[in-house]
Write a structure and sequence with these properties.
Shape: globular
Distance between the termini: 39 Å
Helix content: 25-40%
Strand order of the largest sheet: 1-2-3-4
Number of helices: 4
Number of domains: 1
Strand content: 25-35%
Order of helices and strands: EHHEEEHEHEE
Number of strands: 7
CATH architecture: 3-Layer(aba) Sandwich
Largest sheet: 4 strands, antiparallel
Oligomer: single chain
Length: 162
């Protein structure tokens, strides 16, 4: 899909039978993001199991997908208070798909939300800062599976406090 074909991008909630395709999109996006992000520590099969639980079984997560012409372009996975992940197909980065997904996350989280982003993922951090998220904590990475330094950011509308 070329950038010119992205004029009809829509965002909707993931369908239960899309869990495998979403897991594959996630796995591919993670591989393409190295070295901005550390390599994933789980296998593609473990990613599929994670998405099967969160999409098919519909726990507290909501998964939003961006699509055009029936193709999945990106996803955002959220809890009521956290953006757990935002992943875009590597060949479509910089086309506004992440911003479109964040529009939906912002609209569905009017009281704000938080997220973790790897310190090394400068592109994502810039996107989140442009969207009004602020840094509230930095860690050395000892608390995440990748053991990579990370930053907790928050969007808190109407607040001057971090």
């Amino acid at each position: 899909m070329s950038p010119t074909e992205l004029t009809e991008v829509t965002v909707r909630e993931a369908l239960p039978d899309e869990w495998a395709a979403l897991a594959d999109l996630y796995s591919e996006a993670r591989r393409a993001a190295v070295p901005q992000m550390p390599p994933a520590v789980h296998s593609d099969e473990e990613h599929r199991e994670y998405y099967r639980r969160h999409v098919l079984e519909g726990d507290e997560h909501t998964v939003w997908v961006a699509e055009a012409a029936g193709e999945l372009l990106g996803l955002a996975i959220c809890t009521p208070t956290f953006l757990d992940g935002l992943y875009i197909r590597a060949d479509l980065k910089g086309q506004g798909i992440g911003s479109l997904l964040l529009d939906v996350v912002d609209a569905t989280h009017p009281d704000g939300y938080e997220l973790w982003v790897f310190e090394s993922n400068l592109g994502a951090r810039r996107l989140y800062e442009r969207r009004g998220l602020v840094e509230v904590e930095r860690t050395d990475g000892s608390g995440n599976e990748e053991r990579a330094p990370d930053v907790r950011m928050a969007r808190r509308p109407g607040s001057d406090l971090p």
